[in-house]
């Protein structure tokens, strides 16, 4: 399907992204939405924790287009690993826009189109089983309003950039994320800004600067080494 929404545009790897008028930025890198998700969240986060595991709990900050959730669903089926996926979103895209996104086709997963749309169609705040290996829950609220306790193995921190949503990159929110992770849990983000890394480190994360996806020199992985006191 050809995208007709004026907010949807094609990134350099051929995959779609969406422009947010409210925040003045797009949901993905212009250099490639799928490439960015694969590199930052799957390869640097999910795969990092997946070895030898039969199950994982993943938290996504910023459901957005549903690309990260969809790619994680495909990985759960490919590797036969149980994934409980929770996504927080305060500004969801419309179902009409979701129907125009080309991710299932580009990922050669057209048979999963129904599940991709279910990410956007399903009820909020209610766990949904999308496959034998993948359970999905989406929460319609601001992340600042939530407080989990040592629940997750992986956090995909995919909020809009600090210039667009500065409140999500400050210590109070970082502390919530730290508490949300189990010991040994990992947070990944495309952002490599020095102030963000310093804030993460001050809270207790061990910081790794990793090579970034196309168009970015670096990205950040943060590991929770110690339990919450």
Automatic annotation (TrEMBL):
Gene3D superfamilies, A to Z: Vaccinia Virus protein VP39
GO MF, one example: tRNA (5-methylaminomethyl-2-thiouridylate)(34)-methyltransferase activity
Domain spans labelled MnmC-like methyltransferase: 133-225
Signal peptide stretch: none
Domain of life of the native organism: Bacteria
InterPro entries for this protein: MnmC-like_methylTransf, SAM-dependent_MTases_sf, tRNA_MNMC2
UniProt protein name: MnmC-like methyltransferase domain-containing protein
Species of provenance: Flavilitoribacter nigricans (strain ATCC 23147 / DSM 23189 / NBRC 102662 / NCIMB 1420 / SS-2) (Lewinella nigricans)
């Amino acid at each position: 399907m050809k995208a007709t929404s004026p907010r949807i545009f094609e990134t350099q790897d051929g995959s779609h992204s969406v422009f947010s008028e409210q925040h003045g930025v797009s949901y993905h890198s212009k250099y490639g939405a799928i490439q960015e998700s694969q590199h930052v969240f799957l390869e640097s986060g999910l795969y990092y924790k997946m070895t030898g595991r039969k199950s994982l709990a993943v938290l996504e900050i910023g459901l957005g287009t549903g690309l990260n959730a969809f790619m994680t669903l495909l990985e759960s089926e490919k590797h036969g690993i149980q994934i409980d996926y929770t996504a927080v979103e305060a500004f969801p895209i419309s179902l009409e826009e979701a129907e125009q996104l080309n991710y299932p086709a580009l990922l050669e997963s057209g048979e999963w189109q129904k599940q991709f749309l279910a990410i956007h169609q399903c009820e909020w705040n209610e766990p949904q089983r999308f496959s034998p290996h993948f359970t999905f829950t989406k929460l319609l609220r601001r992340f600042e309003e939530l407080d989990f306790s040592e629940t997750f193995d992986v956090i995909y921190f995919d909020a809009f950039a600090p210039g667009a949503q500065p409140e999500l990159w400050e210590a109070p929110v970082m502390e919530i994320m730290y508490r949300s992770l189990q010991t040994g849990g990992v947070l990944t983000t495309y952002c490599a800004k020095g102030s963000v890394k310093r804030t993460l480190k001050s809270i207790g994360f061990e910081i790794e600067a990793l090579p970034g996806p196309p168009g970015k020199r670096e990205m950040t992985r943060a590991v929770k080494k110690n339990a919450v006191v």
